[in-house]
Amino acid sequence: MSGAQVNRILVIVGQRNRGAGVWGGVRALMETGASVSAFFVSKVPPDAPDAVQVHRIRPRKSPAGSKPSLRRIAGRARELALAARARTWKGSDEVWRDASRDAALRAHAKRARMIVAVDRAAVPVVWRLGRLNRDADLVLGYPEAIRRLSAQRTGPGMA
User: Of 9, 16, 95, 127, whose CA is between 20 and 30 Å from 88?
Assistant: First the structure.
């Protein structure tokens, strides 16, 4: 890798975002010289930094006019009860279902050097996106992402 190459960072926010906290982490990543793209499951908070590519993961839509049958509703209720008992991370399955159909997200994941899960709901999404790009570093949280970027800049061969 040459020192002039720009690091492409993909940030996934799985739960309802925290506005200023999300952008503070993104700004810190940008200060390392990285190009940052952020994907949000819920509404994108205001005041995004100008240099950030911001996207919203589009929710799945039911086919027009389709109504769930009682059997499907009962089956879904059982699934939800089992998930609650297993104490799964709230929303992670739904986040992945929506993310897996987002072509822009998959394209960004294939080009990213690092994929950052901002919260617990984003972890399964980041893990699965890592399968699309085996060379990408998969990271949980901004502090770890910044630490790794700093280590890359000051690592061996970077005088």
Answer: 9
SS3 string, the chain, reads CCCCCCCEEEEEECCCCCCHHHHHHHHHHHHCCCEEEEEECCCCCCCCCCCCEEEECCCCCCCCCCCCCHHHHHHHHHHHHHHHHCCCCCCHHHHHHHHHCCHHHHHHHHHCCEEEECCHHHHHHHHHHHHHCCCCEEEECHHHHHHHHHHHHHCCCCC
Site of tokens 């399968």:
131
The Cα 31–Cα 91 span in angstroms is 31
Q: Which residues pair with 10 in a beta bridge?
A: 37, 115
Residue 26 dihedral angles phi and psi, to the nearest 5°: -65, -45
Report pLDDT digits (tens) over 7-64: 889 998 876 656 667 888 888 888 888 889 888 877 777 777 777 778 877 665 555 5
Q: Which residue has the tokens 């940052």?
A: 36
Q: In the block, which residue shows the tokens 């911001």?
A: 54
Q: How far apart are CA 118 and CA 90, in angstroms?
A: 14
Q: Closest Cα to residue 38, out of 114, 143, 146, 98?
A: 114
